[in-house]
Amino acid sequence: MKATITSIELKGPLKFFALSFKALNIMKQLQATQCKDFKKRGIWTKHYTMTLWNSEMELKEFAKSGAHLEAMQKSKQIAKEIRTITIDTETLPSWDVAKKLLEKAKVLTF
Q1: CA dist., res. 25 & res. 106, Å (int)
Q2: CATH for 2-109?
Q3: Which of 6, 33, 39, 77 could potentially form a cystine with 50 if both were Cys, beta carbons 3.0 to 4.6 Å apart?
Q4: In the chain, where are the structural domains located?
């Protein structure tokens, strides 16, 4: 199985509203997939998600389509930094472990 861990650091606290709107549409898209598990957390300008998938193909199909693709294309409008890492695992890690893994993640800065 594959898990993707993502963090997004917003440009400012008011960007939370734009993030929330996009997240609502992404959640609807996620519910229509074969995603095995999902976790989210965030406060102020730092937000995290984790998803667990049966395969990398399922993960990529989700990431490169629909509301998720649209949000990624417009992410520089609300994000200062996005980190993402994909790992092989049978379960989602704890938040402490996930944050450590993000230290080695692919980083996009805007």
Answers
A1: 24
A2: 3.30.70.100
A3: 39
A4: 2-109
